[in-house]
Specification:
Keywords: TPR repeat, Transferase. One of its GO terms (molecular function) is protein-tyrosine sulfotransferase activity. InterPro entries: P-loop_NTPase, TPR-like_helical_dom_sf, TPR_rpt, TPST-like. The protein is mainly α and about 550 residues long. The chain has a domain of about 280 residues: Rossmann fold, CATH 3.40.50.300. About 60% of the residues lie in helices and about 5% in strands. The chain has 27 helices and five strands. A five-stranded parallel beta sheet has the order 2-3-1-4-5, with helices on both faces. Helix 5 runs antiparallel to helix 6 and helix 23 packs parallel to helix 27. The longest helix is centred in the C-terminal third of the chain and has 21 residues. The relative contact order is 0.09.
Length: about 550
């Protein structure tokens, strides 16, 4: 690392230089010296906040930002910049409710600061406040109508809020301005069912024929092409494009399947009957919280939409709040674990589950209040890992496990390009092995956790929407409301999941058995599932 020359006559630039060089202790001392010289320095306080975030000390970071806010007029651009900075720190700390509240207290409607608006839009997006995200992005777009990144973000916000026609127009604009914006092509293809008269297949093929395409382009364009070809029932060509996209995606991911399988086995071993039967916490903790979980692409978003069509029920989206708070608590009690995931699982059994549940419930209730609801949903599918922990920390929370035909489930995952999650998705054998481990863990939880636990089959739900919806609402302790049958019209909230376009439609059955168009191509997956005891007919 190169040495940083310290100019003692100008401490702030020196502190910034140390920070950028990763020398946090020197940066901290230099920034603190700035405050000793100038007690009203706003920039130094913001830098100190960034230094403490880098050190993992979020309370200290927030302390300096709150000091800065107290020194600024509440209607000034400087105040808004610090307030948005504070919201970002709260987000980094995992306090999504606090981050959204910090932004809610800022009136950015008159600001001309594009960076402020886009930062607010980004934070609101990660807080699943898509209506507010769209408002800020649209405002930024009105100030910078030719900025391609703002156009892209505005398109994504409109997609989340269900304005798919505007989203498509915006993606078209983004592509026209930056033809190498590969993700825009993929997102545009997902917005609607393509037709013979109106599709982008020729354009996508032309782009893919270019020599020397970067890996990211090959991923995005092949997934886009596969989707559009499937819409036109050109199944062999669709799967060929999908395989190319998956291979390119898998080649760019560092992922150890065996580690994930070992973690799931360790969870089942650690959380056995003796531990689950032991003393928990206040039996009322978790009231008003619904978990929807399972594998991705199994209908969790559909269930979320059905429930949020009932007045008073709101959704937090797919937060990592439970996993993050669990991680914080284990790290506090067992600071030497580091990256050892198996030790993490074993030591998690000794934490204060009552404290974990209280912290989680406090955050979710704050989000529920912000969204105007009394009951709130956490629909992060990966919470299936924590069913036993959820039961011990939040005994009164209700858990809904959404299941789907294994081959349909795995094919739906395989053909979905996720941003960062689910790295097991892009290789058929890895996907099959992960699915078997998931099923084994859920079988384990089902034997141990029966109270406030509900298994819902996707195929039954779409086959008898009213009957299954009535049973679901009864389990949740909710009165019957026929608006849940019109979920695609009832909810004004957004979703940024892979199902963002589909949930704007009524229930449809066309996805049932879709994998059968690819019986031959999906043989590697089917073989893994059969070896694990799941009957699959590929004849």
């Amino acid at each position: 690392m190169r040495a940083v020359n310290v100019n003692k006559s100008d401490l702030y630039p020196s502190a910034v230089a140390y920070f950028r060089a990763g020398e946090l202790d020197k940066a901290l001392r230099a920034a603190e010296e700035v405050l000793r010289v100038d007690s009203g320095a706003i920039k130094a306080r913001r830098l100190l906040a960034d230094i403490h975030v880098a050190k993992g000390n979020f309370p200290r970071a927030l302390h300096f930002l709150e000091q800065a806010l107290a020194l600024l007029p509440g209607d000034s651009t400087g105040y808004f910049r610090v307030a948005v900075h504070r919201a970002g720190v709260l987000l980094r700390a995992g306090d999504l409710a606090g981050a959204a509240a910090a932004l809610d207290n800022c009136d950015l409607s008159r600001t001309q600061d594009i960076d402020l608006l886009t930062q607010a839009g980004y934070i609101y997006t990660l807080c699943a406040r898509y209506d507010h995200a769209r408002k800020n992005y649209e405002r930024a777009l009105s100030l910078a109508p030719e900025n391609p990144q703002i156009i892209f973000n505005c398109a994504a916000a409109n997609r989340a809020m269900g304005d798919l026609e505007r989203a498509e127009r915006l993606y078209d604009r983004a592509i026209a301005l930056v033809p190498e914006d590969w993700e825009a092509y993929k997102n545009r293809s997902d917005l609607r069912r393509q037709t013979e008269k109106n599709n982008h297949i020729a354009q996508l093929r032309q782009l893919l024929a270019r020599p020397g395409l970067p890996q990211r382009a090959r991923v995005q364009l092949n997934f886009a092409l596969a989707k559009e070809l499937e819409d036109l029932a050109l199944y062999p060509e669709s799967f060929a494009a999908l395989e190319r996209g998956c291979a390119a995606r898998r080649a760019g991911i560092r992922y150890n399947l065996q580690r994930d399988l070992a973690v799931m086995a360790e969870i089942a071993s650690t959380y056995g009957a003796a531990l689950m039967d032991g003393q928990s916490c206040d039996n009322t903790q978790g009231e008003g919280i619904l978990f929807i979980l399972g594998m991705p692409r199994t209908g969790t978003t559909l269930v979320d939409r059905i429930l949020t069509a009932v007045p008073g029920v709101v959704s937090a989206g797919e937060p990592d709040t439970f996993a993050r708070l669990l991680g914080h608590q284990v790290a506090q009690q067992f600071p030497g674990i580091g990256a050892d995931k198996l030790a993490f699982v074993r030591n998690s059994a000794a934490i204060d589950f009552g404290a974990l549940g209280k912290h989680y419930a406090d955050q979710l209730r704050q989000r529920a209040r912000q969204l105007g609801g009394g009951i709130i949903i956490d629909k992060n599918p990966m919470n299936f890992l924590y069913v036993g922990l959820i039961r011990k920390a939040l005994p009164a929370a209700k858990i809904i496990h959404v299941r789907r035909d294994p081959m349909d489930s795995c094919y739906a995952i395989y053909k979905t390009l996720f941003k960062t999650a689910y790295p097991f998705s892009y290789d058929q054998r890895e996907l099959g092995a992960y699915y078997l481990a998931y099923q084994s863990l859920m079988d384990h939880w089902t034997k141990l956790v029966s109270e406030n636990f509900y298994a819902l089959e996707y195929e039954k739900l779409v086959g008898d929407l009213e009957g299954e919806a009535r049973a679901l609402l009864q389990f949740c302790g909710l009165p019957w409301d026929s608006r849940c049958l019109e979920f695609h019209r009832a909810s004004a909230s957004g979703t940024a999941t892979a199902s963002a376009a589909q949930v704007r439609q009524p229930v449809y059955r066309s996805s049932i058995g879709k994998w059968k168009h690819y019986r031959e191509q999906l043989r590697p997956l089917a073989e893994i599932l059969r070896e694990g005891g799941i009957p699959v007919d590929v004849s």
